[in-house]
Amino acid sequence: MGQLVLAAKVTHVPSLMLSELSGSPLRDARAPAVSSLRELGRRARERGVTCFVVFDTHWLSNFGYHINANARHRGSFTSHEAPQMIQDLRYDLPGDTRLAEAIAARAGDAGLNVIAHQVASLGLEYGTIVPMHYMNPDGFAKVVSVASPLFTSFEESRLLGEATRRAIDESGERVAILASGSLSHRLWPNKKLGPEAWTSVASEFNRQVDLRVLELWQSRRYREFLDMLPDYATKCNGEGGMADTIMLFAALGWYDYRGAAEQLCDYFPSSGSGQVNVEFHVEA
């Protein structure tokens, strides 16, 4: 039988990569986020994680749910939206075809349209690549990337999260699930994308709701959070409809989840959005 041994909500903002450049003014601002991603990678390795399943809100699909089931993920990535921040970023990671296909099969059992693809030219998006750059740099664990559909429902995303957990439990893998995306996601308009945009949230309302969400998590008041999640995703401009967060909590057990939320870095803004790294502890 398989086991879920790590679960986390993580950031994937491209400014993490920009902060690595020599002399970058973002180096200090992004250092806590970078170090906490590396810490999650250390914990994953320590717990014997064999596969990362990444719910990627930067792999957005207009048509149904898709899973990258390639046996190997290999390429050189340049971001189409921010090539000045992520360019020629090489990755070479093992995939997990069997688990990817099992997730699709269990989702199909629940009536969802989910396709697991083995297409050599299907690369990873940066919602997967950036966290893996810090957490899995040497490819010690396999990677399955799951897209976030634009035209879906809250309930469908919940069903896919539940299907993912069933597939994990039936596998022989020790799995880490990552919800890769922001908290609130209202970005600054182009005319305001100056240096101050890297360290400010575009909406004070969104910032306040993000902080309240973190309080609820730290107090394990997950039922209250889940009941507000549909409005939170809509009113705070959720990235990919916050599908990653819906799927994460569904995989954790939804209302039945009782574990501790460990915030690994301070809440921080990026281009107007709200970001954080949080581990949701699961029973060993």
Give a verbal description of the structure.
- The chain has a single domain, classed as 3-Layer(aba) Sandwich (Protocatechuate 4,5-dioxygenase, Chain B).
- The chain is 36% helix and 23% strand.
- The chain has eight helices and twelve strands.
- The strands form three sheets. Strands 6-3-7-2-8-1-12-9 form an eight-stranded mixed β-sheet, sandwiched between helices. It has a two-stranded antiparallel ribbon with strand order 4-5.
- A hairpin with a 2-residue loop joins β10 and β11.
- α2 packs across α4.
- It is globular, with a radius of gyration of 17 Å.
- The model has no long low-confidence stretch (mean pLDDT 94).
- InterPro entries: HPCD, Xdiol_dOase_suB.
- Keywords: Dioxygenase, Oxidoreductase.
- GO terms for molecular function: 3,4-dihydroxyphenylacetate 2,3-dioxygenase activity; ferrous iron binding.
Could you give the topology of this structure?
Layout: E1 3-10, H1 15-18, H2 27-46, E2 51-61, E3 65-68, E4 72-77, E5 89-94, H3 97-109, E6 114-117, H4 126-135, E7 142-149, H5 154-170, E8 174-180, H6 204-218, H7 222-235, H8 243-252, E9 261-263, E10 268-270, E11 273-275, E12 278-280
Parallel strand pairs: 1-8, 2-7, 2-8, 3-6
Antiparallel strand pairs: 1-12, 3-7, 4-5, 9-12, 10-11
Helix pairs in contact: 2-4, 3-5, 5-8, 6-7
The CATH class: Alpha Beta
Find the CATH topology: Protocatechuate 4,5-dioxygenase, Chain B
Which spans of ≥5 residues are poorly predicted at pLDDT below 50?
none
Question: CA-to-CA gap between the ends?
Answer: 14 Å
Number of domains: 1
Order of secondary-structure elements? EHHEEEEHEHEHEHHHEEEE
CATH architectural designation: 3-Layer(aba) Sandwich
**What structural class should be given to the helix and strand makeup?**
alpha/beta
Query: How much of the polypeptide forms β-strand, as a percent range?
Result: 15-25%
Radius of gyration: 17 Å
- The whole-number mean of residue pLDDT values reads 94
